[in-house]
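Now read these lines:
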Amino acid sequence: MAARKSTPLVPCWVYFLLIASVGLPGCMVLPVPGGEQAAVFQVFEPKSRVEDTGIGLSGYWFRDQQLGVFLQLQAAFSGTVSGVEYQSLPVSSTGDPVTAREQHGLTIAVGPTWKFNEHVAVYGGLGVGSVSRWEERFDGDLLLSPTGYYHNDAGTSSDLHLTFGSLIRIGDGWVIDAGYGTFSESVHVGLGYSY
């Protein structure tokens, strides 16, 4: 039995493409002449489903008094487990205490934007969120692991979520992003640049 290698929910190259496509052009939608883009880095403190501080990247495209679009990607990782991996909790684990937990959460959302004036734009959309969890336990009899530590897959849960918020231009292209996401039940704030 080998130690678990952390496997992301999606391959690393997908993260790279999403970050590059959101961070560099500001949005995955090709801008129409006269439009404006913004790229924002976000942080949030989840209240449910995931733990620890999360980060996010969002890209926005908008025009005056017309619908635009946004794409948001958020992730939160917490804890770490070690030892031998079991896909399910072994029968002989009864009474073994939980010593650590690990979880990986990821959300992606897309929806419309609306720019009211030169200083304020709003957005709201629908997305999907997913969380994978593992639990580490200690076997004092060393039956399940040579070191005593082992972990099992505690499952993955997915759900739809809503996200909404506003962008406020604070001068010279800089924008502040404030919004709320239902998957993590938390407020996210961000700083970005509009061009």
The chain has a mean pLDDT of 84. Residues 27 and 169 are 17 Å apart (CA to CA). The helical segments are 12-23. The beta strands are 36-44, 54-63, 66-78, 84-86, 98-115, 120-138, 149-171, 174-181, 186-194.
